Amino acid sequence: MAGSAADNVSVAVIGAGFISDYHVNGLRSAGGATVTTLVGRRREATAERAARLGIPRIETDYRAVLDDPAIDAVVIASPDDTHEPIAVDALAAGKSVLLQKPMALDSVQCSRIIEAAGQSRGRLTVSFMHRYFPEVAWLRDLISQGQLGAIHTVRIRNATPGADWNDWFFKPGNVSGGVVMQLGVHGIDLCRHLFGEIESLQADMTTAKPERQLANGTTVRSGLEDNVLALYRFSNGIRASHEMSYTELRGCDRFRLEVYAENGTAWLRTQRGPAAIHAPAVTSKVDWVVPDLPDQPFGQAHHRHWLAIVRGDAEPDDTPEAGLRSVRIAETIYEAARSGERVPVTITGQGDAA
Question: What is the H or E stretch that residue 116 is in?
Fold first, then answer.
């Protein structure tokens, strides 16, 4: 779809779970789009969510929206094992796609999706929401301007109690991993987005909670990893520790990020607020300083940028390649944990596109 910012984009959301709220509300706050259809596997539950979100049409078969010429684009927010077939079919139908992370079950599937995008008039984007947080944009500007000087070490945490709204999160086959694939890929992408390429890594992981109770009272047993520590070495010399947990009662707010650099320290999403910096050479103050960040509705910037890509008002971004790389790094984390050794992150592996 090519046109101007005045063009209204007709969107179907495929997947009627928890994350659909984020995409529907983000699209509405962005403006210039109408969510016409919600697709879910269970008709009654899908109808209930659609009514709550004010979406007029529901479907239980995603092919119905792919066959509809009035729909310009789809958000794919369904379980992980459905990502590849739905994305490939949507791109073949000429729809633009916003694909929820993880991009697919493995790097082989990611590569096939990218190949399908190369043959489609539709545009492929992978949903890395954290890139669009105001504090992330602020830190990226600081780094790109060189104000922090050389970055020495980074600490990032992704931690929650774990998904309790559906059992598929804990079933091999529906997913290809636990906390690394479900939560850690966000932190992996954020690290690459801010600090560059991860060259090699070490990792240790465990399953601390093999039995858990879902919100509906169902008990689920799982051998998937729920606590992981990964140590990254970047090609530019930066070192980072990445803590991932699916068992923390409180966890952290999306993520917690600490940057320790030559000219100071910057923290994101900590007890000091969305962002804070202690860098007298930058702020001229010998104290912590909280920057004035823009206040915007959750998801607005993310979906506004995606809609600009769909319309052709913005060039496609790097997120398809980033989605592949994040899954490839996740695969390397599993490899390193099994071997107990530092493992290089290869650009191609397990069928990645060369």
Answer: helix 107-118
